[in-house]
Every structure is written in structure tokens, then in C-alpha cells.
Amino acid sequence: MTASTPIYLDTNVLILLLESQTPESKALQELLKRSRDHETPPFITSALTFSELLVRPYRLGQTIIAQEYRYLSHGNAWLSVAPVTASILDVAALLRAERRALKLPDAIHVASALSAGCSHLMTADTGIGPVSALTHPLVGAIQIEPLTLLRPDLPTLTSLLQSIAP
């Protein structure tokens, strides 16, 4: 993990981080704590993430959690927040055209990760797969960094923690 290639965090990773008390959530918290010294945030997500995150707290009247998510939506020392642009939506449509089972929000997350130049996307969603090449029907091959998936499980999180050991 380097500052030049942030890891993209899917919505479910932030839910795990902020709403769970599991060994995985504790490992994620430690990973973020150790990652704060980078020049640029080592993690990135989409503005879409916060729309997804806020549904449950709004529905259940959980104002403290909603405020935490809204505060986080501005980014911080460990997280950048990318806007959803027309080009991201175009690539998301291309991904959905190629992978019929891929849901639109997931396609937007993958397209956002590709747009940000991420080499890794962390997600618990098994409906999201790796991406190594894209060919657009109107413009041809799209230059992308191959996107590798990381699962927010203990072996993966432990490996990441070891890679940035103090």
C-alpha cells in the first residue's frame, strides 16, 4: 500500500469499521490508525458511499451515526472522497453491460476505483469481481490499472497491517 495507489473502500467496509465490534472491525481501525501519517490519504471511496451509508441511520433515527457519516463524507487524513462524474457513470454502464449480475451501485464503486487509479478495492461483496481490461464500444480500449479485490477478513487485514508495521 503506497500513497500513490490508494485502496478503494466499498460501503460495506465502512459499515464494518463504524458499526461493528468484531475482530475484523478492530483490525480495520488499527489499519486506519497506522495509515494516518501518509502525505495523501491511503484510502478512497465514492460520494455514493455516503448516500448508501446514511439510509439505515436515517430510517432508524440514529442521528449520531448519521452525523458521523456526514462528517466523514468530507474526507480526512486517511480517506479521500471522489465525486461521481459523468465519465464514472459511463464506465459503470460499460461494466454493467459486460457483467449482467453487477448492480449499478457496485458498478459505480468499481468505476470510481478505476478512475482513481486504485490497484485494490476492498469489499465484502462477492458480486464484485476483479477487472483487468475494459474495451469501450465507442472509444476502444480504456487504459486502466488492473483492479484486485481485497476482502475485509482477518488474514487480509493482518497482512495489510504487517505491510505498514510501525
From TrEMBL:
Residues 7-127 form the PIN domain. Signal peptide: none annotated. It holds the Pfam family PIN. InterPro entries: PIN-like_dom_sf (IPR029060), PIN_dom (IPR002716). This is PIN domain-containing protein.
